[in-house]
Amino acid sequence: PQAQQDPTVAAPMLAQLINAAGRGDAQALAMLGAMAEQMSRTKGDMARFSTLIKPLVDGERDIDKLCSKIGDTGEKLVTLIVKELRKMETH
């Protein structure tokens, strides 16, 4: 059986990359693009999450809007990322 990945581990790193890309960091944007491409080749929540990276980079923070077509694991990841992004944006 495949172990479930813990979204709490990935969220801070993804939030940092999304924040940097949103501020114009070309390297962070390239890394996110490569990650999104790899995720899009998978199935389930990770494939659907790959479609949320651009809206997050563009500043979307509405969890309900972001999570409308994603399962529980993906929703947990998106929620954690948005919380991290909000912390970064208020400091």
How do you describe this structure in short?
This protein has 91 residues and is mostly helical. It has helices spanning 7-22, 26-40, 45-50, 53-57, 63-66, 72-90.
Task: Write up this protein.
The protein is mainly alpha-helical and 91 residues long. It has one domain (7-90). 71% of the residues lie in helices and 0% in strands. It has helices spanning 7-22, 26-40, 45-50, 53-57, 63-66, 72-90. The protein is globular, with a radius of gyration of 12 Å. The mean pLDDT is 91.
Count of DSSP strands: 0
DSSP helix count? 6
What's the rounded overall pLDDT mean? 91
Low-confidence runs: none
Task: Give the overall shape, derived from the CA principal axes.
Answer: globular
Question: What is the rounded Rg?
Answer: 12 Å
Helical/strand content category? mainly alpha
Secondary-structure element pattern, one letter each = HHHHHH
Fraction of residues in H or I helices: over 70%
Indicate the proportion of strand residues. Answer: under 5%
**Main sheet summary:** none
Instruction: Please give the domain count.
Output: 1
Instruction: Please report the distance between the alpha carbons of the first and last residues.
Output: 41 Å
Architecture blueprint of SSEs:
Elements (H helix, E strand, L loop, with lengths): L6 H16 L3 H15 L4 H6 L2 H5 L5 H4 L5 H19 L1
Short key terms for the protein model shown above:
91 residues
